[in-house]
Structures are given as structure tokens and as C-alpha cells.
Amino acid sequence: MARAQLCAEPFSPEALLAGFLESRAGDGAVVSFVGLARDAGRDGGVVTVLSLDWHPVLTERSMAQIAQDGETRFGVSELLVVHRCGEVAPGEAIVFVAAAARHRRDAFLAADYVMDRLKTEAAFWKREHGPEGYRWIEPTDNDRADLARWST
Amino acid sequence: MARAQLCAEPFSPEALLAGFLESRAGDGAVVSFVGLARDAGRDGGVVTVLSLDWHPVLTERSMAQIAQDGETRFGVSELLVVHRCGEVAPGEAIVFVAAAARHRRDAFLAADYVMDRLKTEAAFWKREHGPEGYRWIEPTDNDRADLARWST
Amino acid sequence: MILRVQFFGRPSDIFGSSREVEIPAAGLPLSELRRLLLQSEPDAVDIFERYGVRAAVDNQIVSGDVLVTPVQAVEFFSMFSGG
Amino acid sequence: MILRVQFFGRPSDIFGSSREVEIPAAGLPLSELRRLLLQSEPDAVDIFERYGVRAAVDNQIVSGDVLVTPVQAVEFFSMFSGG
Lengths: 152, 152, 83, 83
What we know:
The complex is a heterotetramer, with 2 copies of chain A (152 residues) and 2 copies of chain C (83 residues). With 152 residues, chain A is of the alpha+beta class. Chain A has helices spanning 13-23, 58-74, 104-121, 141-148, and strands at 2-7, 29-36, 49-54, 78-84, 86-88, 93-101, 124-130, 133-137. Chain A contains 4 helices and 8 strands. In chain A, the strands form 2 sheets. Chain A has a 4-stranded mixed beta sheet with strand order 1-4-6-2, sandwiched between helices. Chain A is globular, with a radius of gyration of 15 Å. Helices cover 29% and strands 33% of the residues of chain C. Chain C starts with a strand and ends in a 6-residue tail after the last strand. Strand 2 of chain A pairs antiparallel with strand 2 (29-36) of chain B.
């Protein structure tokens, strides 16, 4: 089952992992990814807060679609995506992805794939705030190259 | 820093993830893998317990080497391997691997690589016990093919 | 009649989170709405081009052109950036 | 003199976790020790071959041949299987 959750408050990746491990249906392999807000931007500048604008409808729909695609494409038995929205402090988790599968490669691939798609296709708009104001963060060429790996 | 730990008692993957997230040095991406003992064997038969024989010296040494190689090869900042030994009940964790990196692909690759090597190069001998006795579990052709991916 | 257009991402730097636009009661093509918006804020032209600004009508992302009426929800936004 | 050889994995099905072998005080080649063991348990020949049984001497995996003396730790084991 694929699940996607938008989360306006800080969440605990370890609690999500614990719940995920309990719910998995007897499968042996669980891969998780945690993305954390950093206190330095791409240019090395101080980031005091990361803000994640979201859309009242498109954001959750895009997350659900990506989770569903990840589950179907790699035949994993459980897939969970939890994504923060709003203001995120450095050190807090932005995103949690977990995939359970019988074979570990499928779980790795599903989590990897879901992250690549979230980067460019989940309906969020990200800003790093620092002492000198904010700047928008768009997907990088690396992010696009990562995504392109899956289009074959 | 690469760490490897042999663990004779059941451990909590979520507690390990929590500790790992705290210790990471400001990196944004954390990938973890949890391998759990299943209650069915490869042939579908019931597994009542999995036993993991280990060597007093070679086991920890092989784990440490694999963890170190994973860290160095992918430039991750933190890498942790925890592996059970002795008797493992179905549903309990056998292995936990976590990798923290600045870029998520490095973290995915490091965890994936470490798991592939543990399957065939960590000094354990695995047996599935069931109603009709036990049988040894060796790496599969899949496991060997997975490992071969890294030799280029 | 008044259509309240919403903005997400880069376009909101210029238009704010929403802006009211006077449009015919019968509606107008999305492309024409876009043109009116850019005409009112010439600085937005570059933003729309560089950051792949797209539109959604009633929560559906629109490629190509469609007719937009005052009762519809119309939004413009720059490229997504999740994860 | 007595050398206590240890076994891990498949070979322990046949030899148990350890077995005492009488060897010269001056030692003998590992290959000869292996031959003696297989001679005493012909069923082990197939196991050693099919499951890639290797030896370690003083906690170092040995490829090729070495001299083994009674004061050394000698072990035979089938292929590893972790994770």
C-alpha cells in the first residue's frame, strides 16, 4: 500500500520508521530515506529557516501519485512518503520515504526513485531564509539528471 | 566515520536511526536499510528461528572493513553497520545500515553497496530452523550479481 | 467581473499570493490572461520564462490553452522543488 | 601433538564445531591437514568443494598453502552469508 502524508509540524523519522516496520507485511527489506534541513545553503551562506510553500490540492495529489508510481514500478509491498510543509528549522526532517519489499534491491530502487521524483515533481516551492533575505531553491541539473535515469 | 557493531541481543532499528540522525555532522541525506528475519524460507517453509553463527575475530573485522570501504568509496560522512549474531526470531532485525551524506545519491549508493558486500563477504553462517530441522542459507546468484555491479 | 488569480513560487515575488484581474463574464483564453498579467508587471516576463511558469485551472495543470471564466480557480507557479 | 581445528558453517555439520587432529610437533602443510580431515570424513569432500570451504590460520584467511603448527589457530569454513 502506498501512502503519502503532508505534515505541517515537525515529525520524528524514527517514530515513522518504527510504525512502518510494524505495518510491513512480513517483508524482509526496508529502505528509508530522511532528508534534513541544513543550516548552510548551496552557496555556503547561513540558512535560518527553510520554507516550503505548498498548494492546497496539487501538493498532496502529486505526492500520492509519486508514492503510487514507486510502489507499482518496483513491486514493493509498502511505500510511505511524509513531507513537511511550512517553516522548517535547520536539523528538522523535510522528508521521510520508506519502502518495504521482499528483495532489498526493489526497496532501494523504490526509495531512490521516489526521492528523485519528489525533488522535481512534488508541488512545493522552497525558499532558504538567511540574514540577507530569502532565495528560491529550484531543482539542480543533478536533480534533473537523477530523474532522467528512470525514463529508460 | 565508519562504525560496525556486532550485536548478540535484539536491537531497535528506530533507536539506531534516532542516534544516527543526532550524530550526523550537518549532512542533509540519510539512507537506512533494515533487514528483518522472515517467518518463511526461500522455499516457502516455516522458519521458527534464524541462527547466525559468527567468528570471534573475522566477523567484526569483515564488518568494519566493509563499512570503511563504503564510507571511503562514496565519500559519505557517517556510516553505521549493526549486525545481529546468534538466534534471531522472525520479525526481529538482522542488520541495520545507515549512511549520511551531503548528496542523497552517495548515501543511497553507500548503503546499497554495504548491503551487497555484507551478503557475501561478512563472516556469518546463516541457518533457517524449521519443524524439519535446519538448512544453511548461502548467497544466491542474485546476491553475487548484485555484488558484481560494484566491481567496475 | 473579477477573477482572483493565485500565485506560488517565483511569481508570488512580483504578484503577491493573489491578484484580482478584471475579465469578461464570458471568460477569456488562459493565454490572454497570462498576457494581461505580464503586461501589468513587465518584470514578470523574465521570471515566467526562466522558471518554467505553468498554470493550473480548477486544480488541473494546463498545457496548451483553455477558456478561463470568473468562477474558476486559476493559479500560476514556477517549477516545483520538493524533497 | 594435538591440533584442535575449528569449523564454521557447513563443515561443522560433519566435523562438529571442533576436532582434534594428531600432527607432528614441527607442523604440517595446511593442504596436508585438509587431506587428513577429508580422509577421516569422506562425506566432507563434496561439502568442501561445493561450498567453497576456505581456511584461516591465526585469524588470517589463507589462499595457497602454509605450514601449520600445533600452537596455531586453524579453522575451516564454508562461504559467508551475512545481511
